[in-house]
Design brief:
Length: about 260
């Protein structure tokens, strides 16, 4: 089966890299409300929100964990930046607040979570490495989420350590990033070593397996030949190309989740 990918599709998908160098260039759509207790103030992309709810149901997380910030408009990100700049200064703001237009929150794929208590810091909510918060963190990869800004990676992400900030990248990518110890910047560079049609990175689960590869965009339209008999997911990287995830030997439940 032939798949045609337009140049603009580089900037869409669960694996787009949004950071100081690469801004968010699309308009988010398909937002949904996670089940927390924040009402409609907290929105996530539909797939990410559904996966978050499944994870929270598994650990009964909403009793002790609250959403602090999810999708933000460009205007809201600008307001947060300006307020932090006024209250905390430039160095603090650069470390913990993404520049407007370059925030993962604008994609609808990121959420800040906090441990439930009377007072919660909006910029740096408490999300400790113990108890229910650690249970969430340990199981997040099974539901496609990663801790986006871990300690020790600050020079790569150019954001301070944020134990509260989680990004949806999807399954199997969260598992691979955890296994290889990679943040998203490193993961995309890593996948470029697996050229589509020549090699791929394999991930096996009890219910199936995934093969991941990368193709650089080929001008205005990139043409791919994929096996129509298996589900295939394609995401832009927001940089120069596309990440292809081909599923094999899925059980019926996972085939329904991954689509055709």
């Amino acid at each position: 089966m032939t798949v045609l990918l337009n140049q603009e599709e580089i900037h869409t998908g669960n694996l787009i890299l949004v950071n100081q160098e690469y801004g968010y260039r699309q308009q988010v759509s398909g937002l949904a409300v996670p089940k927390g207790d924040g009402g409609e103030d907290f929105l996530l992309e539909e797939e990410a929100g559904a996966s978050l709810n499944r994870l929270m149901a598994r650990i009964d997380g909403w009793k002790h964990i609250v959403p602090v910030s999810a999708w933000r408009s460009l205007q809201e990100q600008q307001e947060i930046w300006d307020q932090s700049l006024e209250e905390n200064g430039l160095e603090f703001t650069k470390e913990y607040v993404a520049f407007p237009g370059h925030s993962e929150h604008q994609t609808g794929l990121a959420i800040d979570l906090g441990y439930r208590k009377p007072q919660i810091d909006f910029i740096r909510p408490d999300f400790p490495y113990e108890g229910i918060c650690q249970r969430f963190r340990e199981q997040a990869g099974d539901y496609g989420f990663v801790e986006r800004y871990p300690a020790g990676k600050e020079k790569i992400t150019r954001i301070g350590h944020e134990p509260w900030h989680f990004r949806y990248v999807g399954v199997p990518h969260a598992a691979v990033m955890a296994k290889e110890g990679l943040v998203l910047e490193e993961y995309i560079a890593f996948l470029r070593g697996y050229e589509y049609g020549r090699s791929s990175y394999g991930v096996r689960f009890d219910w199936g397996e995934a093969w991941i590869s990368y193709v650089r965009a080929q001008g205005a339209v990139t043409k791919l030949e994929v096996d129509a008999g298996y589900p295939c997911e394609i995401s832009g990287d927001n940089v120069a190309g596309f990440i292809i995830t081909e599923w094999r030997h899925l059980d019926e439940k996972q085939r329904a989740v991954c689509g055709n």
